[in-house]
Amino acid sequence: MVIRILRQLGVFLLTALAASVVVFTLLSVVPGDPAEVALGTSATPEALEAQREAMGLDQPAPARYAEWIMGLATGDFGVSAVTQQPVIDELAPRLGTTLLLVGAGMGVALIVAVPLGIVAAIRHNKPDGAFFSGLSQLGVAVPAFLAGILLITVFAVHLRWFPSGGWVRPGDGLGDLLRHLALPALSLGLVQGAVLARYVRSSVLDVKREDYLRTARAKGLSPNRALMKHGLRNAAIPVLTVSAVQLTVVLIGAVVIERVFVINGLGDLLLMKIDTRDMQSVQAIVMVLVLAVLLINLIVDILYTIIDPRLRERA
């Protein structure tokens, strides 16, 4: 099993390296001069040339890539062309905000999806099972930003239970943080939970038809007891795959939700840097998002090896 995990780590590192080449190449060919962004359009040609030299833009692309990737490996994300501040100083606090929002949204999705999907599968031929299945199908059709607007309208504008937007730091008080986190997390989690519930239902239904569950019932276990004791672990394997995909969707969806709820997160920073054409910052933020997606896939692959005994034996 250790060898399999080490192999997965190797694949992760190679994929991250290939992704860094793609990100660097694509953002290098985007129109616009970072030196002109830093100095303004009224800068003289001599000043622009000096600024390009100071920023290393006079170097060939391979040398610039090598310097950038070595900086990433050591935590140096470069300097913003607009603010002249280290990119990491702007990125780090917003990354924490986004990770908190994504974690809360995925937590809501799992809390909604797992019981809803299991009940919809167990009661699939009953009216309440059909109701839960239809409810999840309705949730799939609602985009996250629309769910956010509806939640703001109901719970912030009319009921005044939660703030309509803004953010507070965790150090400013847990209660205030939870009030500001509730609606954005629900906007992300309810929609993705509805999607995930469909997969949970399908996976549990497939497991219920397996021979080993019929054997367990023949030995005296009730259908639900047999499912809980022998079936859910196997049903979790395909759900784990979908959960990884949904987690990446939640991560990307947080970009839109941060704008809806005026949250100073990584997505909001990315859109702001795109507006100001600060390509050094955009490059770093995109790479952080790519690494986050790859890391999620790596964790899921490792969990496969732990959960599925067939993979452990093969390893």
UniProtKB/TrEMBL annotation:
One GO term describing the cellular component: plasma membrane
Matching SUPFAM superfamilies: MetI-like (SSF161098)
One Pfam family, short name: BPD_transp_1
Alphabetized CDD domains for the sequence: TM_PBP2 (cd06261)
UniProt KW keywords: Cell membrane, Membrane, Transmembrane, Transmembrane helix, Transport
Primary subcellular site in the record, as a coarse category: membrane
Domain ABC transmembrane type-1: 95-300
Topological category with respect to the lipid bilayer: Multi-pass membrane protein
Entry's localization field: Cell membrane
Transmembrane segments: 99-122, 134-161, 181-200, 235-262, 282-307
InterPro entries in the record: BPD_transp_1_N (IPR045621), MetI-like (IPR000515), MetI-like_sf (IPR035906)
An example molecular function term from Gene Ontology annotations: dipeptide transmembrane transporter activity
Domain of life: Bacteria
Similarity remark: Belongs to the binding-protein-dependent transport system permease family.
Protein name: Peptide ABC transporter
The species this protein was found in: Sediminivirga luteola
